[in-house]
Task: inverse folding
């Protein structure tokens, strides 16, 4: 969930590491100072079980390992050994902590300020808003793209952060959406297919999505307000 500029910083901080077959990349029980992203090769993850090292997982290109020691400041939970020649990208603890923690704080502050402007959420306290902010996932769509499609199953709730969108039922245009508006709640509230399609009208639109599970957990107290909003579609 990193913003593009934060992702750029992470990429620039990563160092390419090449490991020969049999090389031990990290060792169970050691302190961890780096995480690794696999570009090439299939290293194996080993844990000591009944006094013997056993393979518990084979990693693939694109997998990440070593992050647990950085996230939770604990010793390595397992060893990772290069099965054949292996190329990884290494990120140090300081950069990881700085980027992830700072990005999380900035993200929460930004979304908290925005959520105060959303009429539906204006009655919530700062704690409830911060919980919602942590559950939101930014998504960007271009002009003409359909965010949700009528009659398809729905598993997300959306809040418009930037841009303009519109809803259609069949050929009829029934709603307009701008920053601070929301949609997608009907399918989650009533556990039914999407009641309308929502399409991007502006050159670009940025929405904040929330999964069905988070929606049910965090917006439960607001269901009566959301249910009343359903009348606007009729």
Result:
């Amino acid at each position: 969930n990193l913003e593009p500029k934060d992702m750029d910083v992470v990429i620039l901080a990563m160092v390419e590491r090449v490991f020969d077959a049999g090389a031990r990349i990290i060792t169970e029980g050691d302190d961890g100072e780096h995480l690794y992203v696999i570009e090439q090769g299939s290293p194996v993850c080993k844990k000591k079980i009944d006094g013997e090292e056993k393979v518990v997982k084979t990693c693939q290109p694109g997998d990440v390992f070593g992050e647990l020691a950085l996230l939770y400041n604990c010793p390595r939970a397992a060893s990772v050994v290069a099965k054949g020649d292996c190329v990884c990208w290494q990120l140090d603890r300081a950069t990881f902590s700085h980027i992830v923690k700072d990005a999380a704080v900035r993200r929460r502050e930004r979304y908290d300020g925005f959520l105060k402007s959303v009429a539906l959420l204006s009655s919530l306290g700062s704690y409830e808003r911060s919980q919602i902010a942590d559950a939101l996932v930014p998504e960007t769509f271009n002009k003409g793209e359909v965010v949700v499609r009528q009659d398809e199953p729905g598993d997300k709730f959306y809040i418009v952060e930037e841009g303009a969108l519109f809803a259609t039922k069949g050929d009829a245009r029934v709603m307009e959406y701008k920053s601070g508006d929301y949609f997608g709640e009907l399918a989650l509230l009533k556990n039914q297919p999407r009641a309308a399609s929502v399409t991007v009208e502006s050159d670009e639109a940025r929405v904040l999505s929330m999964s069905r599970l988070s929606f049910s957990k965090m917006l439960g107290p607001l269901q009566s307000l959301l249910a009343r909003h359903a009348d606007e579609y009729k």
